Amino acid sequence: MQQTYVLLRGREIPDLHKLDVYVKNGGYDALKKAVAMPTADIINVVKASNLRGRGGAGFPTGMKWSFIPQNEPVKYMVVNCDESETGTFKDREIIETNPHQLIEGAVIGAYAIQAKAVYIYLRGEFWDQAAMLDQAIADARKAGLVGPNLCGSNYSCEVYTHLGAGAYICGEETALLNSLEGKLGQPRVRPPFPANKGGGLYGEPTVVNNVETLTNVPWIINNGADEYKKMGSEQSPGTKIFCVSGHVNKPGNYEFPFGITLRELIMEHAGGIPGGKAIKGILPSGGSGPIMRVTDEILDTKLTYEDMAKTGSILGSASIIVMDETVDMTWVASKVIKFFKHESCGKCTPCREGTYWLDKVVDRIMANEAQMKDIDLISNVAKNMQGVTLCALGDFAANPIIHTVKNFPEDFKQHVKGAAAAPAKAAPKQAAPAPAGD
């Protein structure tokens, strides 16, 4: 299968990040077409395309837009470029090589819901990317493609960038909105949901879409929903950027229609495994998704939302981290839980306390100081973190424990065996009792 560049067109077209080059290659034609259409027609086209959110959840984009009440006078479009998921680096390449397609898609979405402004929220480390976007927005504004009466229409919409402070939790849409408002980046209680009055940015109805999601929109408007659905599968149409890293010879971003297999992606396009080693495990959606023990059946799994669900894992944002046969999965669990412990905002007790205790007990296992009951303990703690927090971070933090213990029990048991084989430590001397009354 050949790569299909709908989003990473900058690889084929030199200097696509420049406005004049983008316009010469059909740039902003979709926006000019869109502002002449009824807003409901735009939403219906995106609905018919079955474009699904590329940030991880895979929620239908057109449906999300349709939730916005049309009678509200103030609405916002927010672009999620927090991109803090481990192993994910797709949105960054879009901004660096094809920023105008993102801007065009965001403004089309804003017009469809009649938003007054677009806010592009970037992770705190994306200083250079924010500057690139600011330049692209300024160029588009000067050309009348952003701002008042854009494209000669009666519609006006400004586009702004906003840098966060480098927090993973702000990839969650309500925490992102809090951060954008200058508050702590912590999830909000829902309802109200962002699409409703009181739930969105500054209390106004708001759509939050991922960078990759919105960059698809100009292609869909120009070519139609039916053409878009010719790529990929029925439930997962279009192309997807797969971020491949870990034990592969050629890590990087690969854009293919949904349906390519893990085997073809890893072994053919990403160059296979260094030293010809076997693959032991794959994190198909970064640290947040259930890890998979690799078999021939797993390698032949099609990369679609529906096929990945059948494996017991998720496609998510498709940040595929490959681990060879030398990797100790107890070490993987330890690394991922330390990440989530650090990134937990602390608002929910199960997540705040659960990640702390998981980290402590896994450290004990790694130090060969554990007993079998400690493996049962971390599984129990992880299961009690699922489905009880305001956002999905509690579930994400539980996944590496639950699924490494389930799929790689031998890796944990080897540490327990080490503890059993180690010489017993002398019992500490009992301290003298404290004087009565102290």
Give an overview of the whole structure.
The chain is α/β, with parallel strands linked by helices. The chain folds into three domains: 9-228, Rossmann fold; 239-324, Ubiquitin-like (UB roll); 329-421, de novo design (two linked rop proteins), CATH 1.20.1440. Helix content is 42%, strand content 12%. The protein contains 19 helices and nine strands. The protein has helices spanning 19-24, 29-34, 39-49, 61-66, 90-97, 99-113, 127-142, 173-180, 211-215, 217-223, 225-228, 262-269, 296-299, 305-310, 329-343, 349-366, 372-383, 393-407, 409-421, and strands at 76-81, 117-122, 158-163, 206-210, 239-246, 252-257, 279-287, 292-293, 319-324. The strands form two sheets. The protein has a five-stranded mixed β-sheet with strand order 6-5-9-7-8. A four-stranded parallel β-sheet has the order 3-2-1-4, sandwiched between helices. 50% of the residues are buried. Residues 421-438 have low confidence and may be disordered.
Sum this structure up briefly.
Helix content is 42%, strand content 12%.
The structure class reads alpha/beta
Residues in helix, %: 40-55%
Shape: globular
What percentage of the residues does DSSP assign to strands (E)? 5-15%
The count of helical stretches stands at 19
